[in-house]
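To close the section, here is one more complete example, presented without commentary so you can practise reading it yourself. The ligand is calcium ion.
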Amino acid sequence: MPRRTVLVVEDEPEIAGVIRQYLERDGYRVAVCGDGAQALAEYGRLRPDLVLLDVLLPGMDGYEVCRHIRAHGRTPVIMLTARDEEHDKLTGLALGADDYITKPFSPREVVARVRAVLRRAGNGGDTVLPRLRVHDLEIDAERHVVRRGGETVALTPTEFKLLAVLAGSPGRAFTRLQLIDQVQGFAFEGYERTIDAHVKNLRQKLEPDPRRPRYMLTVHGIGYRLAEESDG
Ligand code: CA
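Output:
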């Protein structure tokens, strides 16, 4: 397998150095840059497989960088957030980031998250899924295509995985913890709210009226389920 390239955007040299060391030890090719403008230039030049993105950067912040990256494609992004505030985590996810890591973190956690995000971004996912159609929504997991009313909908790897998990058992209600476990490969209770952010993004992309979901249904007191044809 070719070596994967990770672009690390972090203005604190010590932190960047430790991340580089651990990722390289795990077999990744690593590029580091310390500000947002340079990050976007390197992103265009290197076409990395994943971007590790600090939120607090000199000049353009990490959210802005994430917005630019999402305007160009679906490269997985993991945000590094210094503050343990729900708002900061959810802002990144709302912009399409795939995951976030709260500082201070252990370098081994970073390596594990990079691995997990790349695994679910890859085509060799472990979810086997038939083609599924609910009303206007078509999900073709094998070809990694989602269409609504015949129009292709662009999803991030995380959004696709979440939809694929729900579509694997249409009508079944999943708890947030079950979803986060299936989507991320591990479950932490503090991360349950991230599922809400991903569901919100999916609704924006899939639902004719995101405030009155037709496909991504809330099951009160439990979590979420995908609609079935019989839901009308
Ligand atoms: Ca910083």
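Once you have examined the tokens, check your reading against these statements. The helical segments are 13-25, 36-46, 62-72, 86-94, 107-121, 157-168, 176-184, 192-206. The radius of gyration is 18 Å.
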